[in-house]
Design a protein that fits this description.
The longest helix is centred in the C-terminal third of the chain and has 23 residues. The relative contact order is 0.19. Strands 1, 2, 3, 4, 5 and 6 form a six-stranded mixed sheet that branches. Helices cover 43% and strands 19% of the residues. A hairpin with a 7-residue loop joins strand 3 and strand 4. It contains six helices and six strands; from the N terminus they run αββαβββααβαα. By secondary structure, the chain is α+β, with helices and mostly antiparallel strands. It is globular. The termini are far apart.
């Protein structure tokens, strides 16, 4: 509903307990004035009990595997949100589905080096099992037969990484 009522060129979805980084927002705002990318994303600082590494950094190619675009620090052109609206049947992964569809439709993503927002972990997205179920449903629907090959690549990568850690010890 908000997207249809918005009048700006870009939209940012910020959760109720999240905040913008003054310096990062200013850098993003300057970039938005001169670029025409469909999606402009910066990093997102994590707060909260389960904030493991402290920073979510956007990665476009990783969308094939996981939700790798932090929505609280991502500006999306309004016309794209009209063309590819968020699916309301997803409680958690609607943003992932949007970003993956955008990527598969060759929308231009621009990644910023700046921390744009501060995200407090918690709420609906902290339900890891439901989140993973929705992400896998999106991947099955949007990637089709390619998902199997991508899962093999991902599993092989994780295995090699685990084995490398054992060798380093």
């Amino acid at each position: 509903k908000g997207v249809k009522m918005a009048s700006g060129r870009y939209v940012l979805f910020l959760n109720g307990d999240d905040s913008l980084s003054s310096e990062g927002f200013l850098c993003a705002f300057r970039r938005l004035e001169i670029c025409n990318a469909g999606v402009v994303s910066g990093s997102c600082h994590l707060d909260g009990e389960d904030a493991v590494n402290g920073l979510l950094t956007p990665s476009v190619w990783r969308l094939l595997f996981i939700n790798s675009i932090p929505h609280p620090s991502t500006f999306v052109r309004r016309d794209l949100l009209i063309e590819f609206p968020f699916r309301t049947d997803f409680r958690i992964a609607a943003d992932y589905e949007f970003f993956l569809v955008s990527y598969l439709n060759r929308v231009r993503f621009e990644l910023l080096d700046d921390v744009v927002s501060n995200h407090f972990r918690g709420g609906a997205s902290s339900d890891v099992a439901e989140s993973m179920r929705e992400v896998e449903q999106v991947r099955e629907e949007r990637l089709g037969w390619k998902k199997g090959g991508l899962d093999i690549i991902s599993g092989t990568y994780r295995l090699v990484k685990r084995l490398a850690k054992r060798v380093d010890v």
